[in-house]
What we know:
The complex is a heterodimer.
Chain A: H1 3-25, H2 37-47, H3 51-84, H4 86-99, H5 108-115, H6 119-141, H7 145-153, H8 158-196, H9 201-210, H10 214-242, H11 244-250
Helix pairs in contact in A: 2-10, 3-4, 3-6, 3-8, 3-9, 5-6, 6-8, 7-8, 8-9, 8-10, 9-10
Chain B: H1 6-20, H2 22-37, H3 45-56, H4 68-100, H5 103-118, H6 124-132, H7 136-160, H8 164-173, H9 177-214, H10 220-229, H11 233-261, H12 263-271
Helix pairs in contact in B: 3-11, 4-7, 4-9, 5-7, 6-7, 7-9, 9-10, 9-11, 10-11
GO cellular component, one term (chain B): plasma membrane
Family (chain B): Belongs to the binding-protein-dependent transport system permease family.
Pfam families (chain B): BPD_transp_1
Amino acid sequence: xxxxxxxxxxxxxxxxxxxxxxxxxxxxxxxxxxxxxxxxxxxxxxxxxxxxxxxxxxxxxxxxxxxxxxxxxxxxxxxxxxxxxxxxxxxxxxxxxxxxxxxxxxxxxxxxxxxxxxxxxxxxxxxxxxxxxxxxxxxxxxxxxxxxxxxxxxxxxxxxxxxxxxxxxxxxxxxxxxxxxxxxxxxxxxxxxxxxxxxxxxxxxxxxxxxxxxxxxxxxxxxxxxxxxxxxxxxxxxxxxxxxxxxxxxxxxxx
Amino acid sequence: xxxxxxxxxxxxxxxxxxxxxxxxxxxxxxxxxxxxxxxxxxxxxxxxxxxxxxxxxxxxxxxxxxxxxxxxxxxxxxxxxxxxxxxxxxxxxxxxxxxxxxxxxxxxxxxxxxxxxxxxxxxxxxxxxxxxxxxxxxxxxxxxxxxxxxxxxxxxxxxxxxxxxxxxxxxxxxxxxxxxxxxxxxxxxxxxxxxxxxxxxxxxxxxxxxxxxxxxxxxxxxxxxxxxxxxxxxxxxxxxxxxxxxxxxxxxxxxxxxxxxxxxxxxxxxxx
Lengths: 255, 272
């Protein structure tokens, strides 16, 4: 990113805030219904010292992370099994195609009912599982057959081929699956909190709404957007660093 | 293409069986396991199917067998889903084309768009509720907010990366601006736009459900919460099945439309 781009980006953000502020001040938008940009901003700084909000952020992020980890731990091995045994993959594929489009939040009431407090993490695991699995399978299909056959002809067993060729060359795809799942995990965590309560950002926002603190409600939501942005850029930065070899191989520029 | 003969039909039926045998097997396994274990939260599929029929599809012929329950809960959900999705996509595609063709406008809005895109959309529901109250406007607002960003980002991406050679050719032949937009830019960006639209179908469904959980007095989501409070597990499962089928049907329909609309794109890539 060059300075011009960054400058125009900052200009856009400043312009957005100024227009929002002006609409409220001039009464075009009722400042009671939609709080002024300035009061949301000062609310946002206040939240940085608000123990309740910070605890909520911690709760939401830790359940999203735990769910994502469990899902990855389950999805990568099952992807490897299906990827190395094409017949198994062909058999199971229709089940995956039927289960994957079920919107995870449709299972929310059942999960909370059957699993109570564990329901939140279970739902995050279920949702994240699919995109990690699909990406793992996709990555395994992309493995260079020549490399696999070379290893096989040198007498390496199936397990060694998976460990030395398939897994490393599928790794960038798996990482992409995990990154996509991270934002979905956050969405599911927040949804559970909105519907069922419990500790977390979702509960903080719905409490702020109930207490008519609209500035805090918007400020907390904005912070969540910032957190989502940070998580995504940290993960894609890590991806870029770890898989530099993959990008050069795939012929992508170093943008 | 010639019409498929009886032999082809038999062959394709055999292929279907070879591909899909696992589905009846899995259902049978579930049925047996549920009956043997008496699992409370996982009723056997046959029980769910019976309940599905009596709850939603045992109505009079004149209403296409839809029950009053289905008319009251299913149809409003579907209507809002389609309306919200279509409105959001229209806005996002128009805005994406307009902003994507100007580099400096794109630079100005890009950080804002990525910021809004990163907000988990369900969080907007309590905020929207303070403005709209409970009801259809809330569902529409929730769906629109959830859908608009991925479509916008993909449209922008498509609009910004139209092959320069196409545009320069237009320039040389003096093609008018409108013709350029309609016949070159829009088709060139269509594959990206479709990718965004397909992601957004799933998001629209999610937002429909959550907004009905949190702020509605009708709809499939509301129905499911009522079933939960009445400990009516089979009824909850019928809603899960309906939503799953809806997700599956929308996704397959979409893929089919996409394949038809983008047929030229794939054939161009194959020869190119």
